[in-house]
Amino acid sequence: MLTKRIIPCLDVKDGKTVKGVNFLNLRDAGDPVELGALYSQQGADELVFLDITATLEKRKTLVELVKRVAQNINIPFTIGGGIGSIEDVSACLNAGADKVSVNSSAINNPALIDQLSREFGNQCIVVAIDTRNVDGNNIVHSHGGTKPTTLDTFKWAKEMQERGAGELLLTSMDKDGTKSGFANELTSFISTHVSIPIIASGGAGTMEHFTDVFTIGKADAALAASIFHFKEIGIPELKTFLSEKGIRMRN
After folding, report:
1. Which of 57, 158, 195, 222, by CA, is between 20 and 30 Å from 169?
2. What is the pLDDT of residue 236?
3. Which of these is catalytic: 11, 31, 176, 212?
4. Helices 111-120 and 86-95 sit at what angle, rounded to 10 degrees?
5. Among the CATH numbers 1.20.120.330, 3.40.50.300, 3.20.20.70, 1.10.3720.10, which is that of 7-244?
């Protein structure tokens, strides 16, 4: 059985780490370089860096900031935001990323995932899926969660795996920032029907929520932001807690 991973997420806007609720009402959460270094020292298994307005503002990921973050950590590092071409991925990997996260660009051009997987290998291609329940259906959203699509979340997850995604970052927009627990039912359903790892995101508020997402939700990794940024839960304490619950954590 694969070990489970804890992944802090740095949502960056205008060079600052921010956090909101349901993708809205963003507030400053600190310097991404300092936070990245802190999480690396604390034993986070990976780090995710999302330039959350890159697609909205039609600009590229903040490559210079990415370089500074990468220079201060020694754990795997995923970059997302405004990535839409082989050139974008090359720039991110050259700046120090281990993986890239693609969202809106894959929705606009699903064949992009085939191209990126062939060019770089699926181990470094993460497809981010922002999903919200709309009239009883889980619907994929694009452009930082601002635009609903006609895509069914489950079918989209399956297609992205088939096209070469190595991992899926599944964010429940309904749960995002609420600290009410992860979307375990949805996460479990998708985890059960795809063979690639699922990173669950949205809703972390207590240590028990992580236990639930790994057991009930069958997630391979759990991503959180505000509870780490605002020091509500410490990563070392969380990993000890989960280990004591019988969940095999990455050392």
Report:
1. 57
2. 96
3. 11
4. 40
5. 3.20.20.70
Q: What are the structural domain ranges in the chain? A: 7-244
Q: Encode pLDDT of 145-177 as tens digits.
A: 788 999 999 999 999 999 999 999 999 999 988
Q: Is 152 among the catalytic positions?
A: no
Kindly name the residue from 31, 130, 212, 220 that is annotated as catalytic: 130
Per-residue pLDDT of 171-210, as tens digits, reads 999 998 889 999 999 999 999 999 999 999 999 999 999 9
Query: Which pTM was predicted?
Result: 0.91
Examine the residue annotation and report whether 130 is marked as an active-site residue of this protein. Answer: yes
